């Protein structure tokens, strides 16, 4: 099934450049040369097609093992499939997202340091504080999240409870390949290139100096940005700084000499490596192989990210509604770009370490 591309462009040269190197064709978007208000508007024909695929989900059979030992159990799959077909209303979700966030699109030039010379189309949330001393803050999401990771802290950042708490102008972009920033069609787009683009975005918004918060994949972008733009990036807060246990730590661990905090940390790292990290190695090596099936199976993709979310997120109830909306932030443009970003970032980790 072919979906008509409904992009409009300020200039033909831009249209040619953006369609050649970046692509998304299931939602309406214009990426001009300066920020313009954006509302999510997914093509109804794509939603119809998605529901049809969801309704035709074919089920696996459970093996007698603990739940999540090999992936989400079949009853999770039927629950999400049934909710998606019978209750989930994308257009209601879309209205709520559009009411909640001040969203924009633009395109930026990544500059002479970059291997990408074409304009880079970006989607971002931008909420300005009305406090005159507010600090520009770039908020960078990770996997399997999206710009919506900023949701619960957004209001407190722009409008803190009193004058002694700092206030922020918050910019929360979608990494290309996620949300509504189209994925690059040229290899080599990693965390460093994303950092060039996000720095250009902050400059375009006239935030010459700014601070950054980043988690998960966003923390890799953050590290490059701090190193590449020392005059502009005033401060960074990474919520993803993985310290590996060394030989001494592990010796102390086997001798039961580690503290309760160290034990909890080492146990979690072991759980991650032995039970949860499989997704990472596949996305690092053959993201396309995986994306072929995932692009065609909305429930398969929702379960792919749910397995990880259920394993690593505390104090959050993963209702079918939330699982579906989180997965739609990838599924709408197609999940390959987001999956592939792992391959590019892990190449950079090897290249630069
Ligand atoms: C998935 O199954 C687990 C274990 O039975 C359950 O705790 C969880 O709520 C289920 N999640 C969904 C979305 O159905
Ligand atoms: C640009 O490409 C070169 C050659 O492949 C590579 O060494 C370099 O790391 C790339 N730059 C970025 C920012 O990824
Ligand atoms: C600042 O904006 C908040 C809403 O975000 C509003 O409640 C508050 O009254 C505003 N303060 C001033 C001084 O305008
Ligand atoms: C201001 O708000 C912060 C955050 O809620 C709180 O920790 C702090 O005590 C408050 N300060 C004053 C002076 O009220
Ligand atoms: C940034 O500043 C320039 C020059 O003053 C202005 O033309 C432009 O509109 C500003 N951009 C934004 C997003 O405010
Ligand atoms: C492991 O890390 C600890 C804490 O930083 C340090 O004291 C110890 O020397 C390290 N051991 C090795 C083998 O590097
Ligand atoms: C390890 O040490 C804790 C106290 O630090 C103790 O409660 C526990 O029984 C010890 N476990 C083993 C296997 O020695």
UniProtKB/TrEMBL annotation:
Secretion signal, residue range per the UniProt entry? 1-23
Question: Keyword annotations for this protein?
Answer: Aromatic hydrocarbons catabolism, Hydrolase, Signal
One Pfam family here: EHN
Q: Which GO terms describe its molecular function?
A: epoxide hydrolase activity
Keyword rRNA processing among UniProt keywords: no
InterPro entries named in the record: AB_hydrolase_fold (IPR029058), Epox_hydrolase-like (IPR000639), Epoxide_hydro_N (IPR010497), Epoxide_hydrolase (IPR016292)
Biological processes annotated in GO: epoxide metabolic process
Give the stretches traversing the membrane. Answer: none
Task: Please state every residue range assigned to the domain named Epoxide hydrolase N-terminal.
Answer: 36-150
Q: Family, per the entry?
A: Belongs to the peptidase S33 family.
Name this protein carries in UniProt: Epoxide hydrolase N-terminal domain-containing protein
> Per the UniProt entry, what species is this protein from, by scientific name?
Heterodermia speciosa
